[in-house]
Amino acid sequence: MPEFAASTVRMKVPEDAVSLPVRVAGVDLRAWAAEAAARLVGPDTPDPKLLPALAAELREAAADSRERGPITALSYVPEPRLGELARIEMSALVADETYPTLTVDLLQRYLAAPTADSYRPPEAELRTLPAGFAVRVRHAYVQDVGRDGLGTIMETCAYGIRADERWGLVLLTSWQAPTHTDALCELTDELARTVRVTA
Question: Among 4, 109, 165, 190, which one is most buried in terms of CB atoms within 10 A?
Fold first, then answer.
């Protein structure tokens, strides 16, 4: 059994976030997304296309996050007419034979490693949170590059949190709207401060 399985991880959920059913078996994502979109939009929307478009986006978000198997995943939708602004995921990292002890340095190397898709070098800062020592990393990637060499910039703000020497947490917020970068980094900072781990 994984080291973190006997622990409880809690984090505040932002007011405009929808919990994605990433760890619940047997959920009909199409039906779930339709209900979630209806709650966000409300009964009096003047745009008949908004509800099905948002439902489709939430369904795709849930399916996408499921593939990574996070502990929890949220779709942040402060303005339903604009769709998902950001995705927030919390995942666990467990020490193994290669890395038998989980350290903040290891978390930093994992999260701040540049890749071939990096748009700019990652920026890392050490932090201390209620849940433990941590590293905060901002990164940006180029995705979906076309034949013309142009692509989409995906920005991320992540926290690697060392729960103890055997396991840790990664809180990751990702988005494609550069005008919201500062606000989404601040949101991630606020969420990281609310993370609690209890045995």
Answer: 4
